[in-house]
Fold each of these.
Amino acid sequence: MANSPRPLVAGNWKMNGLKASLVELSAMAKAYDAALHSKVDLLICPPSLWIAPAVSQLAGSALAIGAQDCHFLPQGAHTGDISALMIKDAGASHVIVGHSERRTDHGETSALVKSKAEAVNAAGLVAIVCVGETQAERQAGRANEVVGEQLQHSIPADGKAKTLVIAYEPVWAIGTGLTPTAADVADMHGFIRQTCERLLPGQGQGLALLYGGSVKAQNAAELMQVANVNGALVGGASLKASDFMAIADVYR
Ligand code: PGA
C-alpha cells in the first residue's frame, strides 16, 4: 500500500545504561543489515547524556538515535532541562513525549505533551507521542475514552504523518510482563487510526502506530502482525542488542 506507514521498532532505555552500555548500540548496528533496513526503521532512545556519543559511535549506520523527553521551549532559564533544538544539534532524529512515566512521575498533562510535540516538530524532529490507559480505566470500560482524550489534547495541531508517530502503551502492560490480547490491540489501534484521521485529516492513514508494553522476542511476532500495528516501543528488551534485534527480526 502506497499509504502504509513504514514500520519502526524503537527502544527506550529509560534511566538505564552507563557509558559501557554503548557497546550494545554497535552490536545492534552490526546486526542491522541492508535486508532488515529495507523492511524496518530502528531507533534507540538512550539517556540524553549518551545521545551525542551514540550518534558519533554510530556514524554510517542506519540505526537512529532519539531522546526520551524534551522541554517545550528552545532555550532559556530551565535548570536541568534540555530542548528539542539541543537534541537535534546532538544528531538525534526522534523525541519520545508523553510517556506514561513522565505523565505520572512529573505530572505532565496532555496540554504540556502537545507543546513538547510541537517543539519537536518545530526543531525538525519526529515526535513519538505516547498514550495509554491504566488498568482501572480499562476495567471500567473507559480505555477508548481515555486514549481518545489523550490523543485529542496531546498531538500537534498540524501533525504530519512524516514527523509524528503514536505509541499506544497501556500503563498496566509497561514493565509488568502483561500484554493485551491481539484482539484488544487490534481494537485500540483501529480506534487510534480513526481518531487520528479525524484529528489530522489526510494524515491518519500514513501515521506509524506503535504498540508498547512488555514487548519481547516471544510475543513480538504476534503483536506486530495485528492490523494497524506498525512497530513497537520497547523498554526492557531494548537494553541488550540480542533481545532488541530478535524483536526487529520479526520484520525480516
Ligand atoms: P517495557 O516498557 O517494554 O519494559 O514494558 C515499554 C515502554 O515503557 O516504552
Note: The mean pLDDT is 97.
Amino acid sequence: MAFSEAPEAATAESPEAGGKVLVKSYGCQMNVYDATRMADLLGREGYAETAEEADADLVILNTCHIRERAAEKIYSELGKLALEKRARAAEGRDMKIVVAGCVAQAEGEEVLKRQRAVDLVVGPQSYHRLPDLLKQAKQGRRLTDTEFDVDEKFDALPQPSRAQIRARGVSAFVTVQEGCDKFCSFCVVPYTRGAEVSRPVADILAETQRLVDAGVREITLIGQNVNAYRGPDDKGQEWSLARLLAHLGEMEGIARLRYTTSHPVDMAQDLIDAHESIGKLMPYVHLPVQSGSDRVLKAMNRRHTGADFLDIIRRLRLARPDVAMSSDFIVGFPGETDADFADTLALIREVGFAASFSFKYSPRPGTPGAERTDQIDEEVKRERLAALQSLLEEQRQAFNAATVGKTIEVLFEKPGRHEGQIAGKSPYMQPVHVSGPADMIGETARVAIVAAGSNSLAGRLVGKGEEAKA
Ligand code: 5AD
Ligand code: SF4
C-alpha cells in the first residue's frame, strides 16, 4: 500500500456556514478515501474546506497506527495544534481538534488523556456520526466514538457533488472492502479496522457511475484486502473482485482500472485472468510479500511461501506479459537471521520490482510479534533496510530507464510544473510530463518516452490514446 508519512489534504468546495475545516490524512489510501468522505459529510453541514491550518476552525487528523513512528508523529502534530489552540483562546477564538483514523481506534480515550487539547476521538467506522459529535463538542463535551458499524457508515455518508468530484481530479478511489481477517503477526489492521466486510455491488456501481459522470477517468478499487472482495449483488449472489472489475470494464467513460491492496492468498485465478481479458485493467499489481524467507513468512502468519508468490507472478506474466510488480517488505521481524534476509534479497532479484515500500519491523502493542523475545537489534534492522532499499532503488531506476525509447499510454491528470506542460501517469504509476495543451487533461494519449529522471519520465505526444476504447 502506498503509505505516506507526510499528510495529504482532502479538497472540496462547500458553503462556509459551519466554518472552515482542514482534514489531514496520514498513511494508506483508505485514509485518503475516508478523508474525502469526511469532507463531503462536513460540506453538507456547511463547512468549507481549507488547506491552511491558520484558517481552520476545525482540524481533523486522520491518523495511521501501522508503525510506531506513524503514531508518534500524530502526538507531535497534536502538540503543535494545542499551542495554536491556546493562542487562539487568548484571542477569544475557538479551534476544535478531532483525532480520527487508526490511532483513534487503537488508543481511544487514551488520546484524550494524553493530549488535553483534543476535543473528539472518532474511529474509522464511526466518522459518519461526526456532525452529531461536533454539536456535542461545541457544548464542551470531550467524546470518544470507536463503535464498529460499516453498513451504517456507508448508508449515512452523503455522495459528493459534481463540483467536489471535479476538484479532486481525474483519478478516484472507491472503497469496495474494509477490514482484515488475516492476522499477520506484525499487523494492527485487524484490530483497528475490524473484520473483512465487502460493500454490496450496487453501492459500488452507483458510486463509480457518479464519479465517472462528473469526469473521473481512472478508478482504483481499494480495500485492506481488496482481492478478498465478496460482495452481494441484488439477487444475493456473491461477486468476486474479478467479476466486479469485468463489469466496471464495460462502463463507458472509464479509461483505467486499478485495485489495491491485495494479499497473495486471495490472488485467485479469475483475478489473474482478468489482467488478460480486461483491457482497461492496468498491468501493474501491488502485492505485498513482506519477506522472501519461508521461515519468517510462517512466523508472520502469512499463509504463503516465497514459491507461492513467485508462482502468482509467473501466472500474472502469462496472462499479461507487460505486467509490472510492486510490493511491501518488512526487515527485522523477530528471529530473522542473516540467511532469512538473504532469501528476501534473492526473491527481490528473481522478481525485479518496478516500485516498493519497505519498512523496519515495528513492534505494535497487542500483536503477537510484539510479544516475542527474539526482537532484532535496531542497528541490524537499519543495515538490512539500507541494503534492501538500495537493491529496490536500483530495480526502480532500471525499470524507469527501460521505458526510455518506448511509446506508452499516459492518462493526463494536471498541468505540468512548467508553462505549456501537462502531467499524467503511465500504466505503471510513473509520473510523465510532456509539452501539450491543457485540454488534454482527463484524456489518455500515446507518449514516446525520451528521458527518465529519478522520479518522473519526460515524453513527447505521438497520438491519441487507445485505452479508452479498450
Ligand atoms: N512494522 C513494520 N511494517 C509494518 N507493516 C505493517 N505492520 C508493520 C509493522 N508492525 C507494513 C507491511 C504492510 C504495510 C502496509 O505496512 O509491509 O504491507
Ligand atoms: Fe495487516 Fe496482514 Fe491484514 Fe495486510 S493482510 S492488513 S498486513 S494483517
Note: The chain has 16 helices and 22 strands.
Amino acid sequence: MSIVEVSDLRKKFGKFNALDGVNFKVNQGEVFGFIGPNGAGKSTTIRVLLGILKATKGDVKLFGKDAWKEAVEIHKRIAYVPGDVNLWPNLTGGEVIDLFMKLRGPKDDRSKRKDLIRKFGLDTTKKCRTYSKGNRQKVALIAAFSSNADLYILDEPTSGLDPLMEQVFQECVMELKNKGKSILLSSHILSEVEKLCDKVGIIRQGKIIETGSLDELRHLTRTHILIKTKKSISSLNEIHGIHEIKETNQGLSFQIDTEALADAISYISQFGILKLESKPPTLEDIFMRHYENKVLEEVNETGGVLSASK
Ligand code: ADP
Ligand code: MG
C-alpha cells in the first residue's frame, strides 16, 4: 500500500488554479523529493495532505485514509515541519520542543531529543521570540525527528540552515530512511535533495511534469564541466552528449548529458587532466530539457511540420 497517494488533485483560489491535476505516490520507506520553483504549488499540496486545505477536486489519501475527512487518524502517524516556522514567542525553545512532543503523545524519545539538541547546537533556554528563522526551524526539526511517526512531511525545512546544519539534517533523514520510515521532502533546489531522495516529483505551475528516480530523470539532466588539460583535447565536439563547448580564461567549459558523463571523462583523461570542476544539473536545466523534448516529440508527431506560432 502507498503511504501517500494523490490523484488528480486540483485546488482553486478564486479563479486561480494553484493545483491543476497533481498525481504522485510515496511508498513505504521511500524518501520522495517534491521539487519545484517558488509558487509552483508545493506548500498548497502539502496543506491538502495535512487536511488544512480542502481540495477543489481529486483524491488524496494518506495510509489509505482521506486527508480531509480522516485527519485525526492520519495526524497520529505524521510529523510535519513547515518552511516558515511560527512559535510561541514567550516560551523557550526547550519548552516548545516539549510541548510538541507532549502533543504527539508518549511514544517519543527523550534521549533522541537530547542528542538532536546537541547535534543541531540549539540553545534551548532562549525565548523563541529571540530566535532567527534557522533556529525556529531547528526547534521544529528537533521535535519532528524526536517523534516516532510513520511519515515525515518536511516543507523546505532547511531554507534557513547553514551548510553544517544542512549536513546534520541529511544525517537525520538517512537515519529515518534506514528505519523504513517514509519522508516527503519539498525543495526548490534540486541539488539539495538529490542525495537523499529515492524518487522525485517535479512540479511547475500546479502540474507534475516529471516523476521518477533520479536515474530515470538522467535523460533530462546535463552536468556543467570546466576542465583544463595538459594537451589540447581533439575532436571533443564529436563526443556523444556534449553541448555548448566554450573556451574561457579558466579552461574549457561545456555541458554534458549526465548519462554520457563517464564515457566523456574517460576520453578526456587521455589528454592529461590538470583541473576538473563539475556543477550538478539544476532545476532550470531539467525544465529546459523537458520543454526541448516536448518540442522534439511534437516535431516527430507532426512529421517535422510545426506551425510557426508554436
Ligand atoms: P510553493 O510552496 O511551491 O512555493 P505555494 O503552494 O505556496 O507554492 O503557492 C502556489 C500558488 O498558489 C502561488 O501562486 C501562490 O501565490 C498561490 N496561493 C497559495 N496560497 C494561496 C491562498 N491562500 N490564496 C490565494 N493564492 C494562494
Ligand atoms: Mg512553499
Note: The first strand starts at residue 2 and ends at 13.
